[in-house]
Amino acid sequence: MGIAQDYLRGSTLGAEPAAKFPSAVATRNVPDELRSDGSQILTFDSQAIEAREALPQSWWERYSFALVRRGYLIRERSDGAGRATAIDAVGPGCWFPLDSGARHEHGPALSAHALSRTLLCLCDEAAVSDALRTGGASALKVHELDRQALARMERLADARGRASALAKVGALLCTLADTLRPNGDGGNRVPADFLQRDLAGLLSIRHESVCRVLRGMARSGLIERDSEGIFIRDRAELERL
């Protein structure tokens, strides 16, 4: 995919100036599988989206997938009644697919919104199709991106399926700490960009339930909350919940 060598093409709609990708921060978070000798290149557009804004529908129609350079976002798939059926949380260095064909009778089935100001690198559909037809390193790297996204969503689904609010929140905190950055290098912290209502939305439980569970975890010394977010103090105990 040659991401380390790619140049982003500046475009309209919140575009940032063209620059080499990734930035110094993003480089540390991009897994080795995404780096190549530059023999196969996928080009990207650099787009910014402000906190709490939704991704424009035109992006879902134009691009094949996106890589996050900075910031955090949540995306979800909904059914015809508007109920969320699958949810994903994405951080720096992570990717997510954009599927323009996912629709139901009330409109698009896929949506996403930024938690903080987010910078995305978007790859158009034609470039991905050409890479997959050609095969080689680019095809393998697209497959690796797919594997990472599916693994992340499976862990979120597992957290949502736990029996109690306590177990749900505990599993979610561990999942976010592990998967918001590739290769599990996120440490034991959930960023402050994730508000309690965001955690409740990821689990499909009431905001009040999340608040109550987090207070209890803090009193028990399992977690510590500060200006940087939620720090997991006792990971082993959270995983046993």
Structure notes:
- The protein is α+β, with helices and mostly antiparallel strands.
- The protein folds into two domains: 151 residues, Jelly Rolls, CATH 2.60.120.10; 80 residues, Arc Repressor Mutant, subunit A (Orthogonal Bundle).
- The protein contains eight helices and 13 strands.
- Strands 1-2-10-3-6 form a five-stranded mixed β-sheet. The protein has a three-stranded antiparallel β-sheet with strand order 5-4-9. It has a three-stranded antiparallel β-sheet with strand order 11-13-12.
- The radius of gyration is 18 Å and the shape is globular.
- The N and C termini lie far apart (40 Å).
The secondary-structure class comes to alpha+beta
Query: Regions with pLDDT < 50 over 5+ consecutive residues?
Result: 1-39
- Percentage of residues assigned to helices: 25-40%
CATH fold descriptor of the largest domain: Jelly Rolls
Number of strands: 13
Order of helices and strands: EHEHEEEEEEEEHHHEHHEEH
General shape: globular
Name given to the CATH architecture of the largest domain: Sandwich
**Biggest sheet, in brief?**
5 strands, mixed
Radius of gyration: 18 Å
Superfamily (CATH H level) name of the largest domain? Jelly Rolls
